[in-house]
Design goal:
InterPro entries: IstB_ATP-bd, P-loop_NTPase. The chain is an alpha/beta fold. The protein has five helices and five strands, in the order E-H-E-H-H-E-H-E-H-E. It has a single domain (about 1-140), classed as P-loop containing nucleotide triphosphate hydrolases (Rossmann fold). The protein is about 45% helix and about 15% strand. It has a five-stranded parallel beta sheet. Strand 3, helix 4 (about 75-85) and strand 4 form a beta-alpha-beta unit.
């Protein structure tokens, strides 16, 4: 888990870790949370969601970037929980988020889903919290 405001390097580090895992022969998926959610909805629409979750469960590492930018509905929250539950103690997950855990209640429509998802994500996890000046704001090249 990597938590920080935007612009502090979470995605860059997650990409580097995924790349290194792939170099070592691991099966890796790097996806943004919005793309994952869209993919799950497409799988629901065509009736292949169970197959989609099974194929994700076969990977060695899943990187979910940008969790927190897009809120989820009940269906998406439930399927994200299923992905996390399937991965629990079987495969590696890296999740980046711009929100501290205290704000995850705003992401999930159901407080129970927040609790059980975080329970599985955080058990045996390393949590890295970044702070500092946003990278894109350094060097005087930024304009707001």
């Amino acid at each position: 888990m990597m938590l920080a405001p935007p612009g502090l390097g979470k995605t860059h580090i997650a990409i580097a870790l995924a790349y290194e895992a792939a170099i070592q022969g691991k099966d890796v998926l790097f996806t943004t949370a919005p793309d994952l959610i869209d993919g799950l909805y497409a799988a629901i629409a065509d009736g292949s969601v169970k197959n989609k979750l099974r194929s994700l469960a076969k990977l060695d590492l899943i990187v979910i970037d940008e969790l927190g930018y897009v809120p989820m509905d009940d269906t998406t929250g439930n399927h994200l929980f299923q992905l996390v539950a399937n991965a629990y103690d079987r495969q590696s997950l890296i999740v980046t988020s711009n929100r501290p855990f205290e704000e995850w209640g705003a992401l999930f429509p159901n407080p129970t889903l927040v609790s059980v998802t975080l329970d599985r994500l955080l058990h045996h996890a390393f949590v890295f919290t970044f702070s500092g000046e946003r990278y894109r704001m350094k060097g005087g090249n930024a304009s707001l």
